[in-house]
Write a structure and sequence with these properties.
By secondary structure, this protein is α+β, with helices and mostly antiparallel strands. The chain has 5 domains: about 5-105, Outer Surface Protein A, domain 3; about 125-315, no CATH class; about 320-420, no CATH class; about 450-460 and about 610-715, Elongation Factor Tu (Ef-tu), domain 3 (Beta Barrel); about 460-605, no CATH class. It is about 50% helix and about 20% strand. Strand 21 (about 670-675) and strand 22 form a beta hairpin. Helix 9 packs across helix 12 (about 280-300) and helix 14 (about 320-335) crosses helix 15 (about 350-380). The longest helix has about 35 residues, at about 385-420. It is elongated and about 165 Å long.
């Protein structure tokens, strides 16, 4: 701006509107002020210096005179002109032309309305719908407001809440699953719990309205807030900003949390006193969780612009905490990138603390936004509406991106008007941003597939039943055997009977052979019969040798040293002390002595202790990324401080049919019972055999380990795209 133009502006004699309502805002050592426009019902925050300068705008003093009178306060020409321009844009000055001011007010109203509709369209997961002015209802509830927020009731609730929390914690320590019994509700009861949730959140908002009435503040709007299609009440308590006592303002902000803690106390008492199977007990558990855990994570969280935020703003003494923190962060960025010199800008806290708060709040909001988007996707995808979910998600993300772009463009324009660029710092910042973009899209990062695995012998010989028979002697599974030691012995009565029959036939034929030998001297026919008889004797002798060899094979001996491992399970009748019950045991178990097994039955395995392997169960999506030969890092539970190496030796072509027993109960796997009593995974899993290069010295069968399979490196973009394809891409 030229010097001539500045001179003409400094000769301007502005006048502040006399109907502006001022309220002192207690915020610590330095007083601050809230200005309320009675025409638009909007509030504006002023520092003590800004308020004093605004009050001197009486229409008689020129801006140059005001600047000279406040020269000791550091008021510069640019700052004063900008401050007056902001007052004029907010229509807080007496207009020189009434028509232009009315047009500006109407234009601002229309722009605000259009922005509101655009924001609703771009934010379909968070929509506000005003309903009515509750002033008449709050006047009738004045006595109730004084009772609820009385000091003696608050003290009683604090003591009773601590006692109830102790009793609930004591019960949960004894039975942790009792709190989540409501998950087994039917569809009708889930609907009842949804209605309960909506009632709780509505009472939460009514608590804010009653607190406004208690501290003589006004509440002019109650409506419905749709968050991810979940309706709940909201009330506008912005009038509490004019209250001079910051503790009154904080109590209004925390009134909803106070009401929910009161409801949680009632629900805890009902949950402790009612039987577990009753519907009231289940609903009380749900109310207790909603009014305690969810309230503390959302409403009481100061990083979200809910109750905790406003309470922190009042207690910290930083009005408009969100705006001040963003301004502080923007000012620090502007000071870094440009030659901008701030005027007498007033911060109600350290700008570094405000900037840190703004950064933490932004990060947490992105996390919450991502959680809501995932929840909407899961909900709509399960009911068969993936296309609608994608439209809502893309619309929401477009709205967020557009808001960031508008804010960045506005900040850039203001910075360019008031300052000059620091080229080196701008280049350094651009290099940093480009480096982050390159790292996101082009820098590959180590990638692993993590799974649980079971230790097994690398070499195992099957032990089969060579003949049908009854088990009369066996070594139990888990025993160590030496080469030549008897593993099991079978009794085959049918085989013994056949041996006896064959021996009897042989004895009879030998008697006949002796008689024919005597007759063959005199009779030619006897000689011919003797030849046939001897052929039969040879056949019976060979049969007897085969039967005797089979009887010898009934004694199963170990071919080499090893450990016996369990084979399939055998169901057999229990002893008389168990009645007619049946029990299932591995075949190599003393309980199965006397049990009959068929020829070729797998009794168990003989493992060789020299070599070990790991068998991991990997979910299908991760198994598709694996290939034979990939390097593996292994960490056993028994030796968690040591890391061992291996490689992928085999990947099963078919999903597992029966889940390994040692892995049942692991948090990583979601299992369901099968029709035959075995456990099956909800998603297809594949066995991955890992050949070990080294392993702990003291290793036992079925010991558990965690394996980290090194897959090809991927960039952050590739990882996010893989997660999107796996979890978010709709099947259209």
């Amino acid at each position: 701006m030229s010097s001539a133009a500045n001179a003409s502006v400094l000769a301007y004699r502005p006048r502040l509107r006399p109907d502006i309502q001022w309220s002192e805002y207690s915020s610590g050592a330095l007083p601050t002020w809230i200005a309320r426009d009675p025409l638009t019902l909007e509030f504006y925050h002023f520092s003590d210096l800004e308020k004093s300068i605004a009050c001197t705008l009486d229409g008689n003093l020129r801006l140059s005179e005001i600047m000279a009178a406040n020269s000791g306060s550091g008021v510069s020409e640019a700052w004063l002109i900008g401050f007056v321009r902001q007052l004029e844009q907010a229509c807080l000055l007496v207009p020189t032309r009434m028509r232009s001011t009315a047009q500006r007010l109407w234009h601002n109203r229309q722009v605000s309305r259009r922005r509101g509709w655009v924001q609703r369209l771009l934010s379909p997961l968070a929509v506000r719908t005003p309903l009515f002015d509750p002033s008449w209802l709050l006047r009738k509830c004045s006595g109730l407001a004084h009772f609820i927020f009385s000091p003696w009731l608050a003290g009683f609730l604090m003591v009773a809440g601590l006692a109830a929390a102790f009793l609930v914690a004591n019960r949960l320590l004894r039975d942790p699953g009792s709190l989540f019994a409501f998950q087994e509700l039917s569809g009708g009861r889930w609907l009842g719990m949804l209605v309960t949730y909506l009632c709780v959140k509505s009472l939460h908002e009514l608590g804010h309205a009653l607190a406004c009435k208690r501290w003589q503040a006004e509440c002019h709007e109650i409506g419905v807030l749709w968050i991810a299609f979940m309706p709940c009440l909201y009330c506008d308590t912005s009038d509490s900003w004019k209250l001079p006592n910051r503790w009154h303002r904080a109590s209004i902000a925390a009134a909803g949390i106070y009401v929910e803690m009161f409801l949680a106390l009632i629900a805890a008492c009902l949950w402790l006193l009612t039987p577990d199977v009753s519907g009231l007990h289940i609903i009380a558990a749900n109310v207790m969780v909603v009014c305690s855990i969810s309230t503390l994570l959302v409403n009481a969280n100061p990083l979200l612009k809910y109750d905790g935020y406003y309470a922190l703003s009042d207690i910290w003494g930083v009005p408009n905490l969100s705006d001040q923190s963003r301004e502080a962060l923007g000012a620090m960025a502007g000071n870094w990138l440009t030659g901008l010199e701030d005027g007498p800008r007033h911060w109600d806290a350290s700008p570094y603390k405000l900037a840190l708060y703004a950064l933490l709040a932004w990060l947490y909001k992105q996390f919450v936004l991502l959680a809501i988007v995932l929840a909407v996707w899961v909900l709509l995808n399960r009911i068969g509406l993936p296309l609608l979910a994608m439209i809502l998600i893309l619309t929401t993300m477009a709205g967020v991106t557009w808001g960031y772009w508008v804010s960045l463009r506005r900040w850039w324009r203001e910075s360019m008007k008031l300052g000059s660029l620091r080229v080196l710092r701008v280049l350094l910042t651009l290099c940093l941003i480009l480096g982050l973009i390159f790292a996101f899209f082009g820098q590959p990062l180590p990638n692993f597939v993590v799974s649980r695995a079971v230790s097994q012998f690398a070499e195992m010989s099957p032990v089969y039943a060579p003949h049908a028979g009854s088990l009369i002697e066996l070594q139990p599974a888990g025993a160590s055997v030496k080469a030549g030691q008897v593993i099991a012995r079978l009794a085959a009565p049918e085989l013994e009977l056949r041996i006896l029959e064959t021996r009897g036939e042989l004895a009879t034929l030998r008697v006949v052979e002796e008689r024919l030998n005597l007759l063959s001297v005199e009779e030619d026919q006897a000689s011919a019969d003797l030849q046939t008889l001897r052929e039969n004797l040879a056949m019976l002798t060979e049969r007897l040798e085969i039967l005797l060899a089979e009887r010898c094979s009934l004694e199963i001996v170990a071919e080499r040293d090893g450990h016996l491992l369990s084979g399939p399970f055998q169901s057999s009748n229990a002893s008389e002390e168990f009645g007619d019950q049946q029990q299932t045991h591995p075949l190599l178990h003393p309980f199965n002595l006397g049990s009959f097994v068929q020829r070729g039955t797998l009794l168990g395995w003989l493992g060789m202790p020299e070599k070990w392997k790991l068998k991991a169960c990997v979910v299908e999506n991760d198994a598709q990324r694996l290939s034979v030969g990939m390097q593996v890092s292994c960490r056993w539970d028994s030796t968690s401080s040591d890391l061992y190496r291996g490689r992928v030796a085999r990947i099963s072509p078919e999903p597992v049919e029966a889940f390994p027993e040692p892995l049942i109960g692991e948090d990583r796997y979601v299992l369901r019972p099968g029709s035959d009593g075995s456990w099956l995974p909800e998603q297809p899993h594949y066995n991955v055999d890992i050949e070990l290069q080294d392993h702990p010295k003291q290793l036992v069968q079925n010991s558990l380990a965690t394996v980290y399979i090194e897959t090809p490196r991927q960039t952050c973009y590739q990882l996010l795209r893989m997660l999107f394809d796996r979890h978010l891409r709709p099947s259209l």
